[in-house]
C-alpha cells in the first residue's frame, strides 16, 4: 500500500464513523498485459534477471528479505546498533514560498531557468538533500571509508550523492488502469549529483538553485515507458522477496524523500466525545527510527505549514539542528 491508498483507507474509515456511504476501496487490479507462462523455472529466472538489469535502482536480495528493502553492505556497524532519532521540522508556507522565489530568481539570473516552474516540493527536497547530506557526511562513521562514496568531509567531484524520490505514477502512466486502483503505485526515481555541489549549496543559493531542476527532471522521467519496464520486472520475479533497492541506509550521501502531504488529513470523522471533525495532525506510526529518511506529513488543504519528518542518526540530527542556514528556513522543531 502506498501513501495515496493509505489516504483512501483513512477516508473510508472516517466515512464509516459518520455512517456515510462507502464505495471505496475497490478491488480493481492492474492488468497491463497477459503474463507469459514459462514451463522451465530457469527461463523465468533468466527473464527476470534481464528485466532487472534495465532497472538500475533495484537489486536482488539473496536473503529474501524483500520486497523493496535496501540491500545492506556486509560490513560496518549493524543498523540496529546505530543510535537513531526522529524530529519534525515545521516550515510555514510563507517561508517555503520565499525559498521557491529564491531558487527561481537565482536560476533565472544564471540563464539556466528550468522549462517548468519550480515547486515547493522540489525546493524543499533540494534544501533537505544538501543540508542532511552535509550533516551525515560530517558526523557519521558507520561504514569503512572504502565503502562510502564520500570518504572525507570535503568530497571531490567524483563523489556522487543520491536523492531517492518516491513518485506516485497514477497520473503519469496507464491512467485508465488506475482510475479506481487501490494498491501500490509508487516507484523510486533517483536524482544523482556530485556531493561537492551539495556541500556548496549549503552556503551558496545559486548552487542550491542548480539542484532543484535536477530533481524535477528526475521525477518527470517517470512516464509510461519507465513504469511499464519496472512493472514487467516485478511481474517476472519468481519470488517478490528477491527484489530490493540498491542502497544502504548507512551510506551518508543517500537520502530518501517522500510526501504524504495530500493524503487523509481532510477526512471528516465522527468520534463520540471528540469535539472536532478533522485531525489537528497526522503522525506516522513506526516500530523504530529509520536512517536517512524524509517524509512530508499529511496536512489539511488550508494548512499554513508543512511538516517534514526526518529520521537520522543521533549525531547527524545534532549536526543538522546546529546548522544555522538550515534552521533559518525552519519555523520550529517538534521532538
Automatic annotation (TrEMBL):
InterPro entries: CAT-like_dom_sf, Plant_Fungal_Acyltransferase. Keywords: Transferase. GO terms for biological process: secondary metabolite biosynthetic process. GO terms for molecular function: acyltransferase activity, transferring groups other than amino-acyl groups. It comes from the Eukaryota. PANTHER family: FATTY ALCOHOL:CAFFEOYL-COA ACYLTRANSFERASE, TRICHOTHECENE 3-O-ACETYLTRANSFERASE. This is Uncharacterized protein.
Amino acid at each position: 500500500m502506498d501513501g495515496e491508498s493509505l489516504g483512501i483507507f483513512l477516508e473510508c474509515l472516517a466515512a464509516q464513523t459518520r455512517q456515510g456511504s462507502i464505495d471505496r476501496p475497490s478491488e480493481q487490479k492492474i492488468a497491463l498485459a497477459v503474463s507469459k507462462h514459462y514451463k522451465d523455472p530457469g527461463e523465468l529466472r533468466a527473464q527476470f534477471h534481464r528485466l532487472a538489469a534495465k532497472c538500475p535502482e533495484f537489486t536482488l536480495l539473496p536473503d529474501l528479505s524483500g520486497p523493496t528493502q535496501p540491500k545492506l553492505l556486509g560490513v560496518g556497524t549493524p543498523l540496529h546498533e546505530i543510535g537513531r532519532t526522529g524530529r519534525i521540522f515545521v516550515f510555514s508556507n510563507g517561508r517555503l514560498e520565499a525559498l521557491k522565489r529564491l531558487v527561481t530568481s537565482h536560476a533565472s539570473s544564471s540563464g539556466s531557468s528550468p522549462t517548468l516552474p519550480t515547486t515547493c516540493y522540489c525546493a524543499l527536497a533540494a534544501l533537505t538533500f544538501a543540508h542532511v547530506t552535509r550533516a551525515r557526511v560530517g558526523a557519521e562513521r558507520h561504514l569503512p571509508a572504502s565503502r562510502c562514496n564520500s570518504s572525507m568531509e570535503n568530497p571531490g567531484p567524483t563523489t556522487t550523492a543520491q536523492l531517492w524520490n518516491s513518485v506516485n505514477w497514477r497520473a503519469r502512466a496507464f491512467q485508465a488502469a488506475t482510475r479506481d486502483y487501490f494498491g501500490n503505485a509508487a516507484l523510486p526515481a533517483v536524482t544523482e549529483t556530485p556531493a561537492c555541489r551539495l556541500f556548496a549549496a549549503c552556503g551558496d543559493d545559486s548552487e542550491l538553485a542548480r539542484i532543484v531542476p535536477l530533481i524535477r527532471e528526475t521525477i518527470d522521467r517517470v512516464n509510461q515507458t519507465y513504469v511499464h519496464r519496472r512493472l514487467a520486472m516485478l511481474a517476472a520475479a519468481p519470488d517478490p522477496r528477491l527484489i530490493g533497492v540498491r542502497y544502504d541506509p548507512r551510506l551518508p550521501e543517500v537520502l530518501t524523500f517522500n510526501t504524504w502531504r495530500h493524503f487523509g488529513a481532510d477526512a471528516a470523522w465522527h468520534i463520540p466525545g471528540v469535539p472536532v471533525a478533522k485531525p489537528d495532525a497526522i503522525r506516522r506510526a513506526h516500530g523504530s527510527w529509520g536512517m536517512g529518511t524524509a517524509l512530508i506529513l499529511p496536512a489539511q488543504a488550508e494548512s499554513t505549514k508543512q511538516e517534514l519528518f526526518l529520521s537520522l542518526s543521533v549525531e547527524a540530527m545534532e549536526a543538522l539542528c546546529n546548522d544555522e542556514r538550515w534552521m533559518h528556513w525552519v519555523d520550529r522543531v517538534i521532538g
